[in-house]
Amino acid sequence: MMRNGSASKGLDSNPSDDICPVCKSNRYLTPTLQFLINPECYHKMCSTCVDRIFTSGPASCPVPYCGKTLRKKGFHKAFFGDLKVERECDIRKRVGAVYNKRQDEFETLLDWNNYLEDVEGLIFDLVEGSKEDRSRAEEKLRAYKERNLGEIEANKRAGLEEVEMEKRRERAEKEAARQRRLAAIKEAEEEKMDVEKSRRDVLEKLASGEGDAREITEMAQKIVLKKAGARKTANESMSNGSRDPDLAIRGLKKKVAPTTEKPYDPFGGIDLTPSRYVLQDNYESEWLQDAKRNQQHTAGGYSFHEYYARTMFEAFSGLGVFIEDEVGNKPAPAAPSNIGTMTAAVAKPKIKQEFKMELDDVF
Known about the structure:
Layout (H helix, E strand, L loop, with lengths): L4 H8 L22 E2 L8 E2 H8 L4 E2 L8 E2 L12 H16 L10 H20 L2 H17 L1 H60 L4 H29 L47 H5 L10 H13 L6 H7 L7 H24 L3
Antiparallel strand pairs: 1-2, 3-4
């Protein structure tokens, strides 16, 4: 299937798009013919018909079965070839001029996303909705604009200020980049001149025989490096001092890096890593040899690693629990002293007899 722009234009082009529906002028006969549209009804007509019908004042749309009142200042040239896309873009601009809140005005990200969802639902009703949906959306848009006119105007001014600040920032960055290029060129030329001057001085000193040749050469290199560092420092301080102080925005919130959301922990942070043993990936067991050779045992998500983990947990469970500590920490029930003495006296012979039986019959 061809995706070429010319091919798709030739296949999808409609001959009626080049004909004015009012005066029937043809673009083929008049190559300079220009079509205009009005956002009230999006009916296309040539510029000659617009001048002829709407110059004297508002008039009804000449397209049959339309009848909407149009004004000449509302006509403009369509940016998109598809008028549906043009209409949706105009609706988005109109709704965006009313629902112009910014994300920093909301307390949470969920509130901001809910606001964007409501705006998209309103745009969808205006673009794709039925006649009742469009009328209901227009009424909602009008009521919101009347109720929040002050906030809308304040947000609009804030948006214009942000755009102007961004333009100034871009101009300042371009000017700073230009200054850096000029400074780099000047620094390269000065460095070249210093190297040339140092070379001449070294040759003169060597020719006169004053001092050691190695010391003269090293000293000349140090002088060249020192001058280059001084120029670099001066250029950096100049570039930092040439910034526009008006571009510094005060009162902004401190930027905090968003915390990465951790996965859900059903155990509430309890560390279940075994501390008395290290679980290995494989254990040699004669009971598992047949199961390891037969792949059917691992069907349905069964894993030998889970078997190893459960077996080791059961084997080591209870090793850290001591009965003496548990009994010692447990408070004894309160009872009268005479009852406790009588109970102990009665139970003492029985305890000795049971203990004797256990000693006589160990197995």
